[in-house]
């Protein structure tokens, strides 16, 4: 497979340079996966618009979705990135490992969310009906379910870009899950 070079600021369009500048201010650097999005003149801006869009999910809930989707899609890059972000959103190491494993015994509502997001991802949108009912019983709404589907799609995009490019993971290493 042809290796994807990680473009520098000087190698991308002026529009992508502006996004690189913003990322550097916010994150302290341009993560490799975002840089490779800039190989396209439009993909980085389009992805950031989607990722930063409004949602009914709280930040912590969105990170739980990001963790389980990245795990199901076997994305080492996104699993590492979202482990770091999940910690910033209040999850501890044990909770993160449990979410990546497909459950959240420490919080019944997040458990229902993780299980439905996992089912959506594994079954290409055809979630287990009982898990959807459990999601509603935990206090989520139909609007929340649509936002979970969008979050699954968002994370699947980055998971696929990583799978296609295999850029180096530039986030702290995370533990492998015992299967």
From TrEMBL:
Entry-linked SUPFAM superfamilies: AhpD-like (SSF69118)
* Chain coiled-coil ranges: none
Keywords attached to this Swiss-Prot or TrEMBL record, sorted alphabetically, are: Oxidoreductase, Peroxidase
| Entry's Gene Ontology molecular function annotations | peroxiredoxin activity
Q: Which InterPro entries match?
A: AhpD-like, AhpD_core, CMD-like
A Pfam family for this UniProt protein?
CMD
Domain Carboxymuconolactone decarboxylase-like, residue spans: 50-117
NCBIfam families reported in the protein's UniProt record:
ahpD_dom
Q: What is this protein called?
A: Alkylhydroperoxidase AhpD family core domain-containing protein
The protein's organism comes out as: Mucilaginibacter gossypii
Lineage summary: Bacteria, Pseudomonadati, Bacteroidota, Sphingobacteriia, Sphingobacteriales
């Amino acid at each position: 497979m042809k290796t994807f070079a990680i473009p520098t600021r000087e190698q991308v369009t002026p529009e992508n340079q502006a996004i690189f500048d913003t990322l550097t201010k916010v994150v302290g650097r341009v993560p490799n996966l975002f840089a490779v999005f800039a190989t396209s003149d439009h993909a980085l801006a389009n992805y950031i618009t989607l990722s930063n869009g409004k949602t009914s999910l709280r930040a912590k809930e969105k990170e739980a979705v990001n963790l389980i989707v990245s795990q199901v899609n076997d994305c080492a890059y996104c699993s590492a990135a979202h482990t770091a972000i999940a910690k910033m959103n209040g999850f501890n190491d044990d909770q993160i490992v449990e979410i990546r494993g497909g459950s959240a015994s420490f919080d019944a509502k997040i458990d229902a969310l993780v299980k439905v997001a996992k089912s959506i991802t594994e079954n290409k949108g055809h979630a287990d009906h009982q898990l959807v009912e459990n999601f509603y019983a935990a206090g989520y709404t139909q609007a929340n379910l649509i936002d979970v589907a969008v979050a699954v799609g968002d994370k699947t995009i980055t998971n696929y870009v990583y799978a296609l490019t295999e850029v180096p993971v530039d986030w702290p290493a995370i533990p492998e899950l015992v299967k």
